[in-house]
Amino acid sequence: MKTYNILFLCTHNSARSILGEALASTHPSGKFVGYSAGSTPGTSVNSIAADIAVELGMDRALLKSKSWDVYVEPNAPKMDFIITVCDNAAGEVCPFWPGQPATAHWGFPDPSLVQGTDLEKRTAFNTVMNGLKKRLDILAAMPLEKLDSMTLKAIHTSIPAQA
């Protein structure tokens, strides 16, 4: 079975994109290899996002905030899909992606900005995780070899924002 490389982009690559990478890499379909990056990566991954990624089955040592520049280098893996998960990254001028991957914006509020108790913060991260999981489940059920950017974008618009 062919696997598809999917890159999740967010400005700081510390929360939403990390969750996308973890969900894709551990998806039960086995169809995806997840990656994540940011336009202006931070110095670390959000601890709640890291904990969730580890719970999903990711190796904590693999969770790093990195620049999207690493994925345009000649030896970088070729991406099949590129998905922005924050509004800032969606509006930025992205690098040229070799191979012309299908692209889409699956925007979610930044859970790391939630103020409150640890439970309220964790709930915000779980909401993003569940929304990304639903979209990945739909994506996995599609004929991926025929998928284009319009169809990829439609996955997001077909699910309510709080999903």
From TrEMBL:
InterPro entries: Ptyr_pPase (IPR023485), Ptyr_pPase_sf (IPR036196). Pfam families: LMWPc (PF01451). Gene3D superfamilies: 3.40.50.2300. Residues 4-142 form the Phosphotyrosine protein phosphatase I domain. It comes from the Bacteria. Keywords: Arsenical resistance. SUPFAM superfamilies: Phosphotyrosine protein phosphatases I. The keyword Glycoprotein does not apply. SMART domains: LMWPc. One of its GO terms (biological process) is response to arsenic-containing substance. This is Protein-tyrosine-phosphatase. It comes from Polynucleobacter aenigmaticus.
